[in-house]
Amino acid sequence: MALTGLEIYKQLPKKNCGECGTPTCLAFAMNLAAGKASLDACPYVSPEAREALESAAAPPIAKVILGTGDKAVEMGDETELFRHDKRFNHEPAIALRVSDALSKDEVLSRVQSINDLSFDRVGQHYTVQAIAVTHDAQEPEAFVQTVELVAANTDLNLVLMAEDPAVLTPVVPKVAARKPLLYAANVNNYEAMVSLAKEHGCPLAVKASGLEELAGLVEKITGLGYKQLVLDPGARSLSRAVADFTQIRRLAIKKRFRPFGYPIMALTTSTDPLAEVLEAVNYIAKYASLIVLNTIAKAHLLPLLSWRQNLYTDPQVPIRVEEKIYEVGEVNENSPVYITTNFSLTYYSVEGEVESSRIPSYIIPVDTNGLSVLTAYADGKFDAEKIASVIKKLGIENKVKHRTLVIPGLVAVLKGKLEDLTGWKVLVGPREASGIPSFARNNFA
Amino acid sequence: MPLQLLKEKNRAAVQKVTLGATKEEGGTRTHTITIGGDAALPFHHFEGEIPHRPVVAMEVQDIEPDWPDALKKCFVDVMKEPGRWAEKCVKEYGADLIYLKLDGADPEGANRSVEDCVAAVKEVLQAVGVPLIVVGCGDAEKDKEVLEAVAEAAAGENLLLGNAEQDNYKSLTAACLVHKHNIIARSPLDINICKQLNILITEMNMPPNRIVIDPSIGSLGYGIEYAYSIMERTRLGALQGDKMLSMPVLCTVGYEAWRTKEAVAPVSDFPGWGDTEERGILWEAVTATALLQAGAHLLLMRHPKAVALVKENIEKLMVSNAY
Ligand code: B12
Ligand code: SF4
Fold first, then answer.
1. Are B144 and B114 spatial neighbours (Cβ–Cβ below 8 Å)?
2. For A119, which residue in chain B has the nearest alpha carbon?
3. Cα A58 to averaged position of ligand 2 atoms, centre (Å)
4. Domains of chain B
5. Which of B309, B316, B321 has the CB atom closest to A274's CB atom?
6. Touching check for B68 and chain A: CB below 8 Å?
7. What is the pLDDT of residues A415-444, one digit of tens each?
8. Complex ipTM value
9. CA A222, CA A113: separation in Å to the nearest integer?
10. How does strand A204-207 pair with strand B97-101?
11. How far is C-alpha B84 from the chain's CA centre?
12. Is A136 exposed, middle or buried (0-12, 13-18, 19+ CB in 10 A)?
């Protein structure tokens, strides 16, 4: 809960000297509450007041960064429990496991496959964010070697998973510049882990068994002056994890409970890869900021990453494309003209299929405020008048010789009226965009 | 300092709806199934009772549907016979209920007669002992006739019949009242229409515990997030005591998932998307799993493997997480 102006005012020196740039302490307090000023502007705040105000003014969940440069991922910094209240900010990072018990060749081929994991669908590009090297081998050297091998062969971020500081210590300096996540500080090793993380400025995972232990451990660690933390409450069953993650998020946001004000990480335990994907679907829904997974199959990750993208979209503003004439392929004056809406998902579904029809074409997405075909139609934003005025406005008649439009099969009812209004011939396309290639072959080839 | 957990005190719970009727109750089902009753957000066992697990109904149609091969091959031997198809779903694939869609009734399609539709319902009732959900083909005129006949012919079975919509709910509600069935109230992803429709139906004296909400979902990748948020808001409304949002929720997962490109596109066309079969199964299973977290009680699904995965996920989520 953010502080009100009055609550802040109580902590200020009340000198009304104006040195902060506002004439009175009260006005300054109001600006602070509105996020329009920084406490640093007042030279007279007492250290106690500073502490009270800063912790209350800090975001409920800290932003913690994994990695550096353009591959860096921000975790945490969330303010909501439900996406309908306001958009969730940072999509959870996906880290894929590579064990140090694998042979050198196995590591290399797995890393190669992971590097190749990126997906394009409906105008979106999905990727994974990290490789988690796990220490399963007997010898500590295996960990050092595997981390070095992985690091040399990927530019994804790194999560180093060896709970023994003795195993981590020799390897961290070698990859510290990439700001890997160190996993993990626990009740027994936290002092060594904190000094390792501090020395190299790396984010640190905190692993406990249960929420109570986690809260205590985080307090000890922040007491040592380290706050680049990611929380693992140690839940290894799905139901427990959902409950623990919910409590962490709720307490951080609704109670400003500082020990829980950090991003959460989830580790899957399902052995069947399809079951593992479903496990992770729950963690994405329930507040994980980092998920460590085994499966690296494309068919498994595409659905998972699609879910992540869907959940983290802005609930108020649909993603849209600009209303203009799009050209697919080497168009000419005979190219077909497809009409659709400017909801990004709708537009790209159509574009993908028009492309695979291999017949160069024009596509005109009518501005429907980002609504899909039927939603826009039901809402009166995609009718014959609207379409007629848009094609006129954009001047498609100057680009093609023919006078034929294709409309979505779902709005076949618009045909007659649209023909009357435009004088163009209107072809009713298939209901699903997937029918476009064969439709195009039949009509335009 | 002991940790103070934050448990919400909810004012109310989701309605319980019981589907099916045994012999003693005037039907022929071997058992009944109750959904709903949740006194908390989905799977928050730690702050309220979740008395009934979400269930999965497998879809059967009265005529052989034009489904993608990945689905057809699971039912090749039975797709022409709704009874055997239903039996396979229950015995082999573990369906909790059967969802019979009477697409054959469609005047634009096979245009099967009312009698044929009723016969298909009877065939399925004969073949399986689980409770049954029956919906029409979507043509308002035809559905009115078909569903009234089905309601009468299956009187006593305590079916779940659909769909009632805002501008077309009266005859189905009346039929469900007379012949004692439950009703699906379908709204177009709009919480106000959802509520309004429930008010209209209850004003005809249908008790709220005989209504199931169909919020019209979108599939993974195709608008699921809208459904997710509307379902979360519906559940929050129910827990805060809004009786007209407190009915259990069903989701048409199989239908939505299997019409997406991602579920069916061959790997040869999209090498970057990986194996087609597992991708399709997951497209359906991920859609279902995501919506479970938003409060789904009854999932209408198609692929046996997706059903198995989702049921396993439900088992895991139903383990108590009380502190
Ligand atoms: C998500 C959704 C919403 C979201 C909007 C999301 C958005 N940005 O559009 C929200 C929740 C806001 C919404 C609201 C409403 N919705 Co709505 N909504 C849906 C839902 C679930 C999915 C729509 C979707 O995104 N589809 C995916 C896109 C990609 O599909 P598409 O645009 O149709 O494109 C496909 C095809 O048409 C084709 N295609 C597209 N362009 C072209 C072009 C050519 C040439 C060709 C050949 C093919 C083609 O390719 C695409 C892929 O196959 C559907 C139900 C459903 N499951 O389909 C209902 C649905 C569309 N909604 C409906 C309604 C009624 C409404 C409301 C009017 C309800 C109300 N309040 O009264 C409102 C109105 C909007 C508003 N004022 O906010 C009805 C429409 C009924 C009808 N037949 O007219 C539907 C069908 C639900 C239902 N079963 O009743 N909705
Ligand atoms: S500088 Fe500090 S003391 Fe002076 S008016 Fe501003 S807030 Fe008050």
1. no
2. B272
3. 21
4. 24-317 (3.20.20.20)
5. B309
6. no
7. 999 999 999 999 999 999 999 999 999 999
8. 0.95
9. 38
10. unpaired
11. 21
12. middle
